[in-house]
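Predict structure. Input: PepSY domain-containing protein, 156 residues.
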Amino acid sequence: MMTFKTRLLIPATAMMMVAGVAQANSLSLDRVDEVLEHASNFGFTHVEEIEAKSGNTIEIEGWLDEEWYADARLSLETGESLKEERERLVTGAWGMSEADVRQALEVARAEGMVDVEEIKIDKQGMIEIEGMDENGRELEVEVRQGSDTAHRVEHD
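Output follows.
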C-alpha cells in the first residue's frame, strides 16, 4: 500500500531527475571561450550548430574546410573527440565564424540568457539561440548573422 508521503515523493523525485537532465544539457555562457577553442582545435572553420550534451560534452556540426563537413562530439574537459563523422560535400562551407558565435551569444546575454543549450544558423543567416535565464526559464533568441541586436526574443 502506498502512503500519501510516498505518492508525493515519487513525482518529486521524477521532477528532480528531469530537472537534472535539463540542466546537464546546458552550458554557462561563461564557457564560450572553452567551447570555441575546442572547436578550433578540432579544425572547424564554419559552425552550423553547437549543442550542449550530457556528460560534460558538446556536439558541433560544421565545416573543416571548403569540402569537408563534420559532426563531432567533444569532451569539454579535454577537447578529445568522443565521436565524429566526416563527409565530403560539394556545397561549400557556410555557417558561423567564431566571431559570429560570440556576437550572437552576447546578444542572447543582453536579453537575459545565462545558460545556452543550442545555437544554430540557417541558410538565410538567422541564428537561433536556445537557453535559460537566471530564473531557469527557457529563453529563445533569434539574431541575424552580423547583427548586434535581437530579431526575436521568446520566453517560455
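Helices lie at 4-24, 32-42, 98-110.
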